[in-house]
């Protein structure tokens, strides 16, 4: 079983951190990216190392192509190369209808959620060895649309889904598998970031499975897609949304 040397963007909180911990449990070394929250990075590194894992953290704005290239340089140097990349970094803004959104907000959402994913994917395509793997973290919002809340976010995740499908075909001759996961309502900080700190508690009981999901449950899907157990899975987008 290969030990997948893995780079995870947005890897110090939420789904990214849970994925890093799952990698550590499998004996996979990880490089974590974060933008500005050094305290969260330190806490994630401590948790991974306490679990017996190998981890490094690097600050980078993934919406800046030069910083993405530097991040990949740092990750390759720290891990001795890369086998897998998890394109996870993403944001939401305050909930509101599209008609009220400012150009600045729309520009930021597209840059961080979609343009940044393209930069990371481009760097991964350049650097991953034949037989490597990429997993994009999308959202159930891509197929639900998030009306009245954040259709801008949903639209960028729709773009990520299309990127997943196209890049899987483009990199298939090199046996680089490309897949995506679409989390539903997951108990992470992102809901508070959008101005809805009680969203999980309120919506959880209304979901088909009767509860919200956990970051660890999404992480398990991500690491499975990266693993050799998913060796014939590429171009797939796996819903981890509790039937929503």
Describe this structure in words.
- By secondary structure, this protein is of the alpha/beta class.
- The chain has helices at residues 14-25, 38-50, 65-79, 103-127, 141-144, 151-171, 190-193, 199-203, 215-226, and strands at residues 6-8, 30-34, 55-59, 84-87, 133-137, 177-183, 237-240.
- The protein is built from 9 helices and 7 strands, in the order βαβαβαβαβααβαααβ.
- It has a 7-stranded parallel β-sheet, with helices on both faces.
- It is globular, with a radius of gyration of 17 Å.
SSE arrangement:
Blueprint: E1 6-8, H1 14-25, E2 30-34, H2 38-50, E3 55-59, H3 65-79, E4 84-87, H4 103-127, E5 133-137, H5 141-144, H6 151-171, E6 177-183, H7 190-193, H8 199-203, H9 215-226, E7 237-240
Parallel strand pairs: 1-2, 1-4, 2-3, 4-5, 5-6, 6-7
Helix pairs in contact: 1-2, 1-9, 3-4, 4-6
- Spatial order of the strands forming the largest sheet: 3-2-1-4-5-6-7
Which class of secondary structure composition applies to the elements? alpha/beta
Series of secondary-structure elements, N-terminal to C-terminal: EHEHEHEHEHHEHHHE
Radius of gyration: 17 Å
Secondary structure: helix percent: 40-55%
Number of helices: 9
Beta-strand content bin: 5-15%
Shape: globular
- Poorly predicted residue ranges: none
Q: What integer is the average pLDDT?
A: 96
Q: Could you describe the largest sheet, including whether it forms a barrel?
A: 7 strands, parallel
Keywords:
244 residues; alpha/beta; seven-stranded parallel β-sheet; 9 helices; 14% strand; globular
């Amino acid at each position: 079983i290969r030990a997948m040397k893995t780079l995870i963007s947005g890897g110090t909180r939420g789904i990214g951190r849970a994925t890093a911990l799952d990698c550590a449990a499998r004996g996979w070394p990880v490089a974590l990216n974060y933008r500005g929250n050094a305290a969260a990075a330190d806490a994630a590194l401590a948790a991974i190392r306490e679990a017996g894992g190998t981890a490094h953290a690097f600050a980078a704005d993934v919406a800046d192509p030069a910083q993405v290239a530097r991040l990949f340089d740092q990750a390759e140097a720290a891990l001795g190369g890369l086998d897998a990349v998890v394109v996870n970094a993403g944001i939401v803004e305050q909930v509101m209808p599209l008609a009220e959104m400012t150009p600045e907000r729309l520009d930021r959402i597209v840059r961080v959620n979609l343009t940044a994913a393209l930069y990371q994917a481009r760097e991964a395509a350049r650097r991953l060895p034949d037989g490597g793997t990429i997993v994009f973290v999308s959202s159930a919002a891509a197929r639900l649309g998030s009306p009245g809340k954040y259709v801008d976010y949903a639209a960028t995740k729709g773009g990520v889904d299309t990127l997943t499908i196209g890049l899987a075909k483009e990199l298939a001759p090199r046996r680089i598998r490309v897949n995506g996961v679409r989390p539903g309502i997951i108990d992470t900080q992102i809901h508070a970031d959008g101005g809805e700190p009680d969203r999980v508690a309120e919506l959880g009981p209304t979901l088909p499975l009767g509860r919200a999901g956990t970051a660890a449950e999404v992480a398990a899907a991500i690491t499975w897609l990266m693993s050799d157990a998913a060796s014939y899975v590429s171009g797939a987008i796996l819903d981890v949304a509790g039937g929503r």
